[in-house]
């Protein structure tokens, strides 16, 4: 049976995402650089040069624009911009401004993330997010980014996955190394309230810089699926790990939905995925339908706030599975749009194979790079996904047609 392709709306964001620390290399003033060079951690290898995107960002953008992508989400590095308290680097601000201008010159609309997991080491030494004055320090940094974001930046993401920041803080306080077999550690409540306050302060600063900027933040959606009789357990488990952060976005211009897999919840809590299920290189269950569940749940909680898929992808060495997974995920986006959800864009994770917080082994990228020469190679999935960006049409599956 032949189906008419699904047309994505005019102006729909079609792109890919990266994070500075994961691709730039040599982010020596950050807390993560210190962690990577400290004995006794879970970190398998340091980031070192990463993909050398600090110097090769033009190549990255050239590939994306040449393939047909219209949007690029990248982060700017607080530890570079403010390497010492109250000392702002004009050179680094100019560097990130050149990236914004470079994107615009190539026809890529930039979405700038102000914080993607890393903080300056001096901020970490003060006690990080729960230290006295932390919210004000973050707001000061956001105000200082005006030369980067004031012109030509349509979307700003204040903080990437704040719920994971709180989860990691909770695990650290509990002395946990690594995550449980299923589910997430209990988030630290003090950190939760601090990052929510920091986000709200950052939103005010961004709007003061330019009220036309669309500002929001992105949440890691675990797609908690309750087994029969476990709905209340799932809701209680989900709220501190996800919903409280979604609720905090109700006055924002948009909210980022980031989804990869699902977590089943039984009467006793999270249940590990079956041993015989297909898994990705991160050992997550292969489950493209997660994105549809994440979009719908986020819409139910946040209310009348536009949704943008700011991360979705798969860690795999088999690029054909990346195409299959992304096809399934995009079918979910199309179905959500047809059902009336206000979904404004899809940004794949990741543009590049990169440093996945301790290891280079999980390859999420649409583009690979040679670790010796740093030469970029677009994978077939990148060519395919970029082509969809040109046409703005997704071939319909029976799921969409039915």
What does this structure look like?
- The protein has 402 residues and is an alpha/beta fold.
- The chain has one domain (6-401): Alpha-Beta Barrel (TIM Barrel), CATH 3.20.20.80.
- The chain has 15 helices and 15 strands.
- The protein has helices spanning 20-23, 31-36, 53-67, 78-81, 90-105, 121-125, 134-144, 146-149, 162-174, 189-209, 231-247, 290-302, 319-338, 380-391, 398-401; strands spanning 6-7, 13-17, 71-75, 109-113, 155-160, 214-221, 224-226, 254-259, 263-266, 269-271, 307-311, 343-349, 367-369, 376-378, 393-394.
- An 8-stranded parallel barrel has the order 2-3-4-5-6-8-11-12, surrounded by 7 helices.
- The model has no long low-confidence stretch (mean pLDDT 96).
The number of helical runs is 15
Widest sheet, order of strands:
2-3-4-5-6-8-11-12
Please give the share of residues in helix.
Answer: 40-55%
Sequence of secondary-structure elements:
EEHHHEHHEHHHEHHEEHEEEHEHEEEHEH
- Poorly predicted regions are none
> What would you call the structural class?
alpha/beta
Main β-sheet, in a few words?
8 strands, parallel, barrel
The CATH topology name reads TIM Barrel
Number of domains: 1
Form type? globular
Quaternary state of the chains: single chain
Mean of all residue-level pLDDT scores: 96
CATH class: Alpha Beta
Question: Could you give me the name of the CATH homologous superfamily?
Answer: Glycosidases
CATH architecture: Alpha-Beta Barrel
Round the Cα radius of gyration to an integer and report it.
20 Å
Amino-to-carboxy terminus distance: 12 Å
How much of the residues is beta strand, in percent?
15-25%
Number of strands: 15
């Amino acid at each position: 049976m032949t189906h008419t392709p699904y047309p994505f709306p005019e102006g729909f964001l079609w792109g890919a995402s990266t994070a500075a620390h994961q691709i730039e290399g040599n982010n020596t003033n950050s807390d993560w650089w210190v962690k990577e060079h400290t004995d006794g951690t879970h970190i398998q290898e340091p980031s070192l040069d990463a993909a050398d995107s600090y110097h090769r960002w033009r190549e990255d953008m050239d590939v994306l624009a040449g393939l047909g992508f219209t949007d690029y989400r990248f982060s700017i590095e607080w530890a570079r911009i403010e390497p010492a308290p109250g000392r702002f680097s004009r050179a680094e601000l100019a560097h990130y401004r050149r990236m914004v201008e470079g994107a615009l010159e190539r026809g890529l609309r930039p979405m700038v993330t102000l914080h993607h997991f890393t903080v300056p080491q001096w901020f970490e030494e003060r006690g990080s997010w729960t230290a006295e004055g932390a919210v004000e320090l973050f707001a000061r940094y956001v105000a200082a980014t005006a030369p980067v974001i004031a012109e030509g930046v349509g979307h700003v993401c204040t903080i990437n996955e704040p719920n994971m920041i709180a989860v990691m803080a909770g695990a650290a306080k509990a002395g946990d190394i690594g995550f449980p077999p299923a589910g997430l550690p209990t988030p630290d409540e003090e950190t939760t309230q601090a990052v929510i306050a920091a986000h709200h302060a950052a939103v005010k600063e961004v709007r003061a810089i330019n009220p036309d900027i669309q500002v929001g933040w992105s949440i890691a959606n675990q797609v908690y699926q309750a087994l029969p009789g476990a709905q209340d357990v799932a809701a209680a488990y989900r709220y501190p790990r996800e919903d409280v952060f979604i609720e905090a976005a109700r006055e924002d211009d948009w909210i980022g939905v980031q989804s990869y897999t699902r977590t089943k919840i039984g009467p006793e809590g999270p249940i590990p995925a079956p041993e015989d299920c297909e898994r990705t290189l991160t050992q997550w269950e292969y489950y493209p339908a997660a994105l549809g569940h994440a979009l719908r749940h986020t819409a139910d909680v946040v209310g009348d706030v536009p949704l943008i898929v700011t991360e979705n992808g798969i860690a795999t060495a088999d690029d054909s599975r990346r195409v299959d997974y992304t096809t399934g995920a995009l079918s979910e986006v199309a179905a959500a749009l047809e059902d009336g959800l206000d979904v404004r864009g899809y940004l794949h994770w990741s543009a590049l194979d990169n440093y996945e917080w301790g290891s280079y082994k999980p390859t999420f990228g649409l583009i690979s790079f040679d670790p010796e020469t740093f030469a970029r190679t677009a994978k077939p999935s990148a060519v395919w996904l970029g082509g969809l960006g040109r046409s703005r049409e997704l071939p319909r599956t029976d799921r969409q047609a039915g």
